[in-house]
Amino acid sequence: MRKKGPFRLGIMGGTFNPIHQGHLVAAEVIWDEFKLDEVLFVPSGRPPHKENDEIAPPEHRWMMTVLATATNEHFSASPIEIKRKGESYTYDTILELKKIYGEDTECFFITGADAIAEISTWHKAENLPEVTKFIAASRPGYKLDMEKIHPRFRKCTYLVEVPALAISSTEIRKRIKRGQTIKYLLPEAVEKYIYKNHLYQ
Ligand code: ATP
Ligand code: MG
User: Fold this and answer.
1) Which CATH number is associated with domain 8-166?
2) Cβ of 111 less than 6 Å from ligand 1
3) Is the shortest distance between the CB of 52 and ligand 1 below 6 Å?
4) Mapping DSSP to helix (H, G, I), strand (E, B) and coil, where does residue 42 land?
5) Residue 136 — φ and ψ, nearest 5°?
6) pLDDT band (50, 70, 90) for residue 51
7) Ligand 2 centroid distance, CA of 42 (Å)
């Protein structure tokens, strides 16, 4: 049963191209450690400047995100960034989520160690600490270090160690191209979906 107090919402943003066990394990461990009520996976829309054919169409990334999160009762997925026209910014996403979940929702934006070092460069970055806290998950190859985080964000950022899974979407895409197995690197339903739709070939 949910304890009293504001709803604690974890927000896991990503390209999810494709979603994999690294994302899922990080979200699960953080859900547990931070006593979150829910972790919401938000796949990004089509990146505006990157005309990158490495990125599967949003509809497919959305479907894979739904498949990967469907069987965990405290995971869910939101298409708000996929549906948004034009550029999509974390700040706007969080404001929109607060309208849906309630203005007093406590938001925890979950990122990997690689992404957290860059938040100060994000759009409307200076306003982000007013609307969300950040949880930076360790990730193999990226040393977690408060020094790397812009001073403005240090107060609202938690660093956490998650079991290291040296998995990245980039590596999974390469393996598919080379005809190598991707079994157990991502949920079976996602693996099947990728082959059925000939993604990343
Ligand atoms: P790509 O290789 O295409 O960049 P990715 O594996 O980094 O893909 P993203 O969709 O870019 O996946 O990641 C979404 C978020 O999940 C980012 O904040 C990223 O740092 C984090 N993340 C990705 N893989 C892991 C992992 N193995 N452990 C912890 N965090 C991860
Ligand atoms: Mg990445």
Assistant:
1) 3.40.50.620
2) yes
3) no
4) strand
5) -105, 120
6) low
7) 14
